[in-house]
Amino acid sequence: MKELSSSAIVSWLQLLARIYEEKKDYLTGLDAAIGDADHGANMARGFAAVAAKAPQFEGKDIGFIFKTSAMTLLSTVGGASGPLYGSFFLQAAGKSNGKTSLTAADLGACLEAGVAALTARGKAVFGDKTMMDVWLPVLDAYKASAADGDLVAALTKASEVAKTAAAATIPLVAKKGRASYLGERSAGHLDPGAESSSLLIEALLTIARQ
Amino acid sequence: MKKLINSPENLVVEAMEGMEAAHGDLIKAHYNPNFIVRADAPAKGKVAILSGGGSGHEPLHGGFVGAGMLDGACPGAVFTSPTPDQMYEAGKAIHGGKGVLLIIKNYTGDVMNFELAADLLKADGIEVESVVIDDDVAVKDSTWTAGRRGVGATVLAEKICGGAAAAGLSLKEVADICRKVNAEGRSMGVALTSCTVPHVGKPTFDLPEDEIEMGIGIHGEPGRTRMKLQPADKITEMLMDPIITDIPYKSGDEVLLFVNGMGGTPLLELYVIYRKAAAIAKAHGLKVSRNLVGSYITSLEMAGTSITMLKLDDTLRKFWDAPVKTPALRWGV
Ligand SMILES: Nc1ncnc2c1ncn2[C@@H]1O[C@H](COP(=O)(O)OP(=O)(O)OP(=O)(O)O)[C@@H](O)[C@H]1O
Ligand SMILES: [Mg+2]
Predict the structure, then answer these.
(1) I want to staple B133 with a disulfide (CB 3.0 to 4.6 A). Which of A10, A201, B150, B189 is the partner?
(2) Ordered alpha helix ranges (H), B95-224
């Protein structure tokens, strides 16, 4: 069965830097509609800083890579998404310390710890129109299909669910984050954090397939 | 987009350099991580006060650093919360042995980043109190949502707490005064135009020539409702009514009335707003004993105004009147 090596994880982080740079205006546009027009810039800035650390990742375990990424995101992203994604990677690091590759079960443990960190930091629940609307069903879908140990199959399912879940934030009225200030006017728009989260899962699938 | 900038990337740092060049007698800037502190930091033997937030609200917060107000301020990217490492380093740089008060505007990003910074400072053995300001009546308060935004009352809290800290009050006492300002202060704002975030290059929302956004915050975001432009007196009524009825302020209360410009509205118009706001306050039996008129908490070049009212007692009035010497507010010195 396929595993994700340290270098695959580094490729994933580098791919994310490219994706968030490409989608910067798109994500910021989503945030302009219901937030403050900075989400794309925040994500691009943060992941560019992570990708710039790639030389330090050479020969290192995944725990180190995740922890360094977490600290980098915390100190460069700002906004709500900085502490959220930062906490996600920090807790994922705790589950991958000393590991130089991740099995389907290892990745599941990382995701589970990461999502728990998002809940602890942001205190949002499913349906609040935040990135949790993606992460909670993604975690469930991943766990359900990773049971038989196939990492690519589990990520394929997770990525499908992520896309549907992100789109499902459109009709919702936001209860957390900046969009909640708009009340009813937040309905009819895709949540930027849900979309950036979905892109993150999709990129991991792209790497796992290689 | 037409802006007096060299590049969106360097905007915040270049503005910090300019502030330092202009006000080096009052403040000093630290880069990477970015923060501004009093020129004589750390001021020993008093509570240190730290605030911060996205850039684009100038003079908030950096312009309020100096004797009698903030000890430090952390500017983030435009409209984006600063990061915990900035707040942590700034907190250490200003700590004078009596603890650090963090004044935080209630935005998810600011709250989460300051929470992380508070943990880092506490881990170093520094005493920390955090107060979250949420005075915006346009947003319905609820424990299920992000709650109300922190707007105009932040300026008043920073001034009053600065006075209290300079008078030698303890961390707990200064924090309690800050909570009191938040409890007794309320705000509401209106936008006549949107604003352009430099790295975005176009206005955050489109507003037709004859329409306004009522119930805005300070991040160029749309408000609660869009409506037709009205005469200033009518708009002032629409801002004052929800403020007065929120706590509510009662006949006989002594208040501070703060009419704030959003960045693109001339003082000439702000005084037209103040004239009516003061008349409305009087008609409600409120005694306006202190005021502030001008652009102190802004949203880049947005045209518009916000009104903040704060119920005063002897303590709050005393610390409001206390001397202050900062780039943007100065009296009694
Ligand atoms: N409490 C929360 N829990 C989980 N996710 C949240 C929460 N609040 C906001 N988010 C997510 O963060 C995204 C916005 O991130 P962004 O980078 O734009 O920060 P921001 O909210 O603008 O921060 P700031 O208020 O400091 O400017 C939202 O689209 C949402 O998915
Ligand atoms: Mg945003």
Answers:
(1) B150
(2) 108-123, 153-166, 171-184
- Alpha carbon of B277 to those of B64, B224, B256, B268, B286: distances in Å? 25, 21, 11, 15, 11
Alpha carbon of A179 to ligand 1 centroid (Å): 8
Q: Please judge whether A185 and B222 are an interchain contact, meaning their C-beta atoms are less than 8 angstroms apart.
A: yes
Q: Ligand 1 atom closest to Cα of A131?
A: 31
CATH class of A4-209: mainly alpha
d(CA B16, CA B14): 5
Q: For chain B, what is the mean pLDDT?
A: 96
**Count of other CB atoms within 10 angstroms of residue A29:** 17
Give the number of whichever ligand sits closest to the CA of residue B57. Answer: 1
User: Which tokens go with A118?
Assistant: 């998002």
Instruction: List the beta bridge partners of residue B228.
Output: B211
Write the CA distances from A189 to A149, A182, A201, B3, B134, integer angstroms.
36, 11, 21, 29, 26
Domain B185-321 has CATH 3.30.1180.20: yes
Task: Give this complex's ipTM.
Answer: 0.83
Strand locations in B152-249, DSSP E? Answer: 185-191, 211-214, 225-228
Residue B100 sits at φ, ψ, to 5 deg, of -125, 130
Mean pLDDT taken over chain A: 96
Q: Is A199 helix (H, G, I), strand (E, B) or coil?
A: helix
The answer to whether A115 and A142 have CB atoms below 8 angstroms apart is no
CA distance A89 to chain B (A): 15
Closest residue on chain A to B81 (Cα): A79
CATH topology for the B8-183+322-331 domain: Rossmann fold (3.40.50)
CB atoms within 10 A of CB A194: 25
Q: Is B104 buried (19+), middle (13-18) or exposed (0-12) by CB count in 10 A?
A: buried
Q: Which amino acid is at B166?
A: A
The predicted structure's pLDDT at residue B330: 98
Q: pLDDT digits over B169-201, tens only?
A: 999 999 999 999 999 999 999 999 999 999 889
Q: Ligand 1: does its nearest atom lie under 6 Å from the Cβ of B114?
A: no
A162-A166-A170 Cα angle (round to 5)? 160
